[in-house]
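Anyone? Bumping this.
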Amino acid sequence: MSLLEFCEWLENTQIGTGIRESVWVFPIIEGTHVLALAISVGAILWFDLRTLGINMRGQAISEVYRQVKPLMIVGFVIMLATGLLLFWAHAVQCYNNVFFRFKLAAMFMAGVNAAYYHFKTERTIDDWDKFPVPPASVRMAGLLSLIFWAGVIASGRLMAYTF
Amino acid sequence: MLLAFFEWVDSTRLAWLMRDTTWGFAIMSVFHLFGIIMLLGGVAFMSMRLFGLFMTERPVSQVADGLAKWTLLGLIITLITGAGLFSGETMRLYESGPFWIQMTFLFFALIFHFSLYRKVTRWDEAPAILRGVTGFLAVTLWLAVGIFARAIGFFSY
């Protein structure tokens, strides 16, 4: 089974068809997906601004991270769950959509950037945790995170336009 | 009078850019979304501080210090791009139920944001009940604005 055939099968399952054709379910899932953005990407934004040395400079980076982490995770889980349901209902259109591919690529890059920060850059956090403006490698992680997430959001919005 | 205003907006160059170009409206809506994330994100985190669920070891005014200017920037971006989006479908919005509900909530949300919310988020000795009510109102009002805004696209035409 090719990827396209899988998408065709997926959106024609009972759940896929049910979500797509319902008057209320699709808008509610879609609305939740967008509103969860404000929590998860909002949390990422506050942390990125801290790593860039722009905001909340008086607080240790690890402290800001610890505070925003639960919300980042909760928001992300809601976004992922609702996103999968939306995909389920429109799998073929997603497959054929160039912005959907951009979005996946941008999410992947955001993930790689976050992993690199946590597994590599963050190892030396004791040296710069309380710096108002942390070293360039940390600021770079924050800047890249902002760029990739902006890419995810922009392509997510634009894919709905080209359906 | 109101209809005349809508018709005037509909005749502007901005309306043409939003309505009759391929990407005008789409790009404007992307920036609208960026603004919303900053605004709603800022309000959500500030409210959680008011509820005592976030950055509890920091005074409320200090958390507000970190969030308020970004929230305001988000609000300004949202309002400007919102006006842009409005110009692209003015005449349809005039007939849209969800749009008028959104505008009503927006009216109250703005008044609240620059009065009670502004005061309580800068007042470290505010009673817990007042904090709770303020946080609840902030989340409810802005969420209502967002929900009816999203409903415009689904339930208007």
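Late reply, but here is one note on the structure posted above: The interface with chain A takes residues 26, 29-30, 33-34, 36-42, 44-45, 48, 54-55, 58, 62, 66-67, 70, 143, 146-147, 150-151, 154-155 of chain B (CB under 8 Å).
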